[in-house]
Structures are given as C-alpha cells and as structure tokens.
Automatic annotation (TrEMBL):
Keywords: Membrane, Transmembrane, Transmembrane helix. The chain crosses the membrane at residues 21-45, 65-88, 95-118, 130-152. It comes from Antiquaquibacter oligotrophicus. This is DUF2975 domain-containing protein. It comes from the Bacteria.
Amino acid sequence: MTPAERGRRAGEVTQKFILGVIAGGAAAIGVVEVVLLIVRVAGLLGDEAVTVAGIPLASPLEPDFAAGLAAVTAASYDSVTLTIAGLVGSARGALVGAAIVTSLLSIAVCAVVAWLALRVFLGRPFVTSASWGIGLVAVLAISVGFLQPMFLGFAHAEIAQQLGTDALPTFLVELDPAPIAWGLALAVVGAAFELGQRMQRDTEGLV
C-alpha cells in the first residue's frame, strides 16, 4: 500500500469514526430528551406545586437590591418565576402542550441528524427518507415557532386569572422568529436533498 493510499484509508476511517460519534451522540441526546419530557410532563400533571419560569409582567419592575448600588444607573425586570400551589388544570395542560411541542422538535432534529450521519456513513446520503425527514423537521420548527408561544401565553393568562393580580398581563404572546427561520432554512435543505436524490438516480442510470 502506497503512502497516498494509506493516507486516504486513514481519512476514510477517521470520517466514519466521526460520523459514528455524531449518529450515536444524536441518538443518545434524543433518548435523554424523551426521558426529560416524560419527567417534565409527570411533574406538571402530578405535582401539587408547579414552578413556572418566564412569566411576563404587565410592566417592568425595579429590583430592590439595585437601589443602593452607585454604579447601577437603571435596573428592571420584566418576567418572574412563580411556584404555584394548586395550579388550575387548564394552565397545566397548556404548559404540557408547550413542553411537548418543544421536545418533539429536539427529538426530531436528533433523529434526522442520526439518520443522515448513518446514510453518509453508508455512502448514500440522498435517499427519500432523508428528504422527508428534513422536511418534517422544517414543518415542526415552523409549527413550534407559533404553537409554543401560544401555549405559554394561554398558560400565563390562566395563571394571571387564578392569582387575580394586575401585575401579570391578561394575555400576552411573545413570538420567537428563530424557530420559524430555522424551519424555512431546513425546507431549503430538504429541497436540496431531493434534488440530490434525483441527480443520484440519473447518474446511476447512466452507469
């Protein structure tokens, strides 16, 4: 075996090792995410007191600790974390919905990454399942961009109504454009994989 062949062989082995690590890591993260989702849902549905983070305030408030700090010219916070005993079922259900859609996106991304790494490992990345998988993740990402804020907005509204305080807004939805942008980008990647699959079939037909 010539030095060039040994170098090429070493590169192929290294590439396959890296792909194996990526596939295994993505699969492991997906499994962990499933377990964490189950624990989170069980806590939201079964715990007497539920901790809810990131509840927006109707208007920003000034923290007391900053009043005596000469170097701080201004300070405020616009969200709080509350632990609520006897949280109403409608708020619990909305929080469960937000947790599920968010975790489903993470699980789907891990599954697609593991599958793509496996297909590249086998030397055939452009397959129908890869294109469909990327397309599914794109749809999930765009859906999460709309559904997760809606679920959280409804949950926060139910919490405000249960507590009966004007410090929390009656209903507020804070849209995050990042998942929507990622979904659109993944849709383009899925289209590129579909084009690659067609070119692969055409090339195989010429051989």
